[in-house]
Structure formats: structure tokens, C-alpha cells
Amino acid sequence: MASLAGISGAVGVISVITAIQLVPIITNDGTYYPPFFILGASLVPLMLISVLFVGGRIAPVRSKQKNKPFAEMVR
């Protein structure tokens, strides 16, 4: 079964390769960048929704020792 980190890494690589190919098309051969930044900004909410959907519940990591938060153990 694939992990969220593995899927995210694969999507990141594919996204970079796709963006490199699409930049000249979207930006009129590199002279006008706002459409590319609008596209990138519109993907942020989609990414957050997908992480919440795929990742499930988000909670602090607890240690097995006296139920302390992990951050307190590191100090």
C-alpha cells in the first residue's frame, strides 16, 4: 500500500516536469507570468483538501512514555 509521503513525492516530481513543459505555453514564451502564478495559487487549496482527505485525522504525536507530546521529549 502506498504511503501519503510516497504519493506526495511522486506527484511533486510529475508536477515539476509538467510545469517545466507548460511554462512557455502558459506565459507566452516566458514574457508574461501572472497566469502561471494564478495556476499555482489555485492548486494550494486543492493540495490542502487532498492531504486532509487522504491523510485522515491530524493529531499531535504522543510518546508511549507517560503520554507526553513528542516535542517535550526532544527537549
Give an overview of the whole structure.
This protein has three helices and no strands. It is mainly α. The two termini are 34 Å apart. The model has no long low-confidence stretch (mean pLDDT 78).
How many individual β-strands? 0
Q: Mean pLDDT, rounded to whole units?
A: 78
Unreliable stretches: none
Number of helices: 3
Helix content: 55-70%
Which outline best applies?
elongated
Structural class determined from secondary elements: mainly alpha
Strand content: under 5%
**Rg, alpha carbons:** 19 Å
* First-last Cα distance: 34 Å
Order of helices and strands: HHH
How does the major sheet shape up? none
Q: Which features would summarize this protein structure in a list?
A:
67% helix, mainly alpha, 75 residues, single chain
